[in-house]
Amino acid sequence: MRTNYRVNATVQFSTLSPDQCEEIFSASLEILERVGMRIHSEEAVDMLEAAGATVDGQGLVHIPGYLVKHALNLAPSRVVLAGRDGSRKVVLEKDRIYYGTGSDTPFFIDPRTDERRKTVYQDVYDAARTADALPNIDFFMSLGLVSDAPAQTYDRHQFMAMITGTSKPMIITAVDRQGLEDQHRMACAVLGGEDVFRRNPLFAIYIEPISPLQHSKEVVEKLFYAADHGIPMVYTPAPTAGFTAPMTLAGIMAQGIAETMAGLVMAQLRSPGAAVVMGGVYTIIDMKTMIFSYAAPEFLLLSAALTDMAKWLGLPMFSTAGCSDAKVLDGQAALQAGLSILFSALSGANLIHDVGYLEYGLTGSLDMLVLSDEIISMVKHLLQGVPVNPETLAVDLVASVGPGGHFFTTEHTLRHFREVLWQPELQERDNYQDWEAKGRKTLSDRVRAKVLRILESHQPAPIPPEALEAMQAIVAEADQKYA
Question: What is the span of the domain harbouring residue 397?
Answer without folding.
Answer: 390-420
